[in-house]
Amino acid sequence: MTIRCNIFFEADLLQADPMVPSRLPLTIRPARFDELAAFARELTIAGTSPAEVLRRHQQGEQAIFAFTRNQLVHVRWLVLRSLWLPDVGVTLQLAPSEAYAHNEFTFPEFRGQRVSPAVKSFCLQWLRSLGYTREIVHVHAANFPSLAVQKRVGYRPTKTVWSFFRPGHPEPFVLLGARKRGSPFLVPGRPMLRPSLVNG
Ligand SMILES: CC(C)(COP(=O)(O)OP(=O)(O)OC[C@H]1O[C@@H](n2cnc3c(N)ncnc32)[C@H](O)[C@@H]1OP(=O)(O)O)[C@@H](O)C(=O)NCCC(=O)NCCS
């Protein structure tokens, strides 16, 4: 059995967030559709296959790219609909004003330069300008670099979820802990088993 602990965090977009500058000169922007194919090799290194990139695009997910001197240094994905989180074993049900960010990846040679905090800061401003009020992320409890980023940008921890992956069981047993209520709204199980939860 594999046990996984995930911590959910959120940023309140109605409050002022710290703008964390990177140590690198960055150009940060939403990726265009043609760039998803042009950067297929880099996206694969970041853990997203071309087929998965296409699926995400078709589902309306938005990739955010950060470049330094025309070199892609970071990618991050934004989702605006409810979705199944396989590494947690829950469906994250988003309200219309909520966004979820995942698969943040700074290419190894550019880590430690505050690229990720700067991209997060950009996303929070961008989402706020579009009328969103909350951005949600989750982090594996052992991912110390990512935990450091959430803290630096002022994300608030909201929920801790324990997932027990058992041989022979397609979905983990999930412990939502004491703070079951409140944001984010998490439901154990896949959305396809609960069609009413899928609003995308
Ligand atoms: C997590 C991640 C996105 C952080 O990106 P980043 O642009 O390096 O962010 P930062 O520069 O703010 O560094 C964050 C932490 O990484 C660690 N770090 C610093 N230099 C590093 C280096 N050269 N290599 C690896 N990690 C380093 C430090 O713990 C740092 O925190 P600190 O500055 O408070 O000490 C990046 O490490 C990454 O892509 N990891 C693999 C994918 C991943 O885990 N994504 C998050 C999923 S939730």
What does this structure look like?
This protein is of the alpha+beta class and 200 residues long. The protein has one domain: Gcn5-related N-acetyltransferase (GNAT) (Aminopeptidase). 23% of the residues lie in helices and 36% in strands. It contains 5 helices and 11 strands; from the N terminus they run E-E-H-H-H-E-E-E-E-E-H-E-H-E-E-E. The strands form 2 sheets. An 8-stranded mixed sheet has the order 2-3-4-7-8-1-9-10, with helices on one face. Helix 4 (115-129) crosses helix 5 (144-153). It is globular. The site of coenzyme A (COA) has 17 residues, from strand 7, helix 4 and helix 5. Coenzyme A is lined by residues 104-106, 111-117, 139, 143-146, 148-149.
Spell out the blueprint of helices and strands.
Blueprint (H helix, E strand, L loop, with lengths): L1 E11 L14 E4 L2 H6 L1 H6 L4 H9 L3 E7 L2 E9 L3 E3 L4 E4 L4 E9 L8 H15 L4 E7 L3 H10 L2 E10 L7 E3 L9 E4 L12
Parallel strand pairs: 7-8
Antiparallel strand pairs: 1-8, 1-9, 2-3, 3-4, 4-7, 5-6, 6-11, 9-10
Helix pairs in contact: 4-5
* Residue windows where pLDDT falls under 50 for at least 5 positions: 194-200
The structure class reads alpha+beta
CATH topology: Aminopeptidase
**Global mean pLDDT:** 92
Percentage of helical residues? 10-25%
Please tally the helical runs, counting DSSP H or I stretches of 4 or more residues.
5
- Please count the beta strands (DSSP E, at least 2 residues each): 11
Order of helices and strands: EEHHHEEEEEHEHEEE
**What is the CATH domain class?**
Alpha Beta
**CATH homologous superfamily name?**
Gcn5-related N-acetyltransferase (GNAT)
